[in-house]
Amino acid sequence: MTSYAIETPPVVALPIRGSDALFPVRRVYCIGRNYAAHTIEMGHDPDREAPFFFQKNPNNLDPSGEFPYPDHSSDVHHEAELAVLLKSGGTNIPLDEAESHIYGYALSLDMTRRDLQGEQKKLGRPWEIGKAFERSAPIGPVYPVSETGLRNDGAISLSVNGDLRQKGDLNQMIWKVPEMISYLSDYFELAAGDVILSGTPSGVGPVERGDTMVLSIDGFEDFTVTVT
C-alpha cells in the first residue's frame, strides 16, 4: 500500500447536471484571443495565426457561484467562455476524430487581473499572475454531450448588473473546438479530465465587489456569479 509523506491534495471535481457523479479535472488549457472582435479590442491583428494557449490550475475552477475579488489588483475583468471537457485524449489526434473525445460542456469565466497581466505583457513574461490566481475560473455544472449534442454555434453573452457587456456566437471562434483539441494534442498528451476554455467574445471589462454577472449560452441554463 502506497504511503505519502504529506497529506494528499484533494481531487478537483465538478458537478454534472442531473447526476450524482462528479467530473474530475486533470488540466486546464485556455486559448488566447480566439474571437476576432476581442482580438481587435485587445490591440492585436485578428488574422488567423497559429493559436496560443496558457494554463490555469485545476483548483482555479470554482462552481460555487461566487467570485472573491482578488488582492493586488484594481482592474479585474470578466471573460465569458464555453468550457469543453474531455473524456479521453492522446497525442496527434486527427481533426476528424477530435470531437469524439468530448465528454461535455460548461459555462465558465476566465477572470483576469488585467493590470497585472498587462505588466507581464510589457516585460515579455508569463501571464499566470494575472490569470491563474485563486478561484479565477467560475464554472457552471457540466452538461454531457449526450444531452447537448456537439456545440459549434449558439449565442454567447454576459451581463453585469443587468447591463449587456459581451455578445457573440460560438461560430465566431477563429479556432474551432475540434481544431483546438487536435492542435493541443500535437504538443501535449491530452487525457480524460482535461478542460479547455475556448476563448471570449468582445466586450470584456471590469467588475466591482457586489456586481452580479450572468453568463448565457444558447441551449444551457444561465450561470450567475456574484463578485464578493
From TrEMBL:
Record's keyword terms, sorted: Hydrolase, Metal-binding, Pyruvate
Database matches in Pfam families: FAA_hydrolase
Annotated ranges, domain Fumarylacetoacetase-like C-terminal: 28-227
Signal sequence bounds: none
InterPro entries xrefs: Fumarylacetoacetase-like_C, Fumarylacetoacetase_C_sf
GO molecular-function term, one example from the UniProt record: acetylpyruvate hydrolase activity
Superkingdom, natural source: Bacteria
Protein name: Fumarylpyruvate hydrolase
Lineage start: Bacteria, Pseudomonadati, Pseudomonadota, Alphaproteobacteria, Rhodobacterales
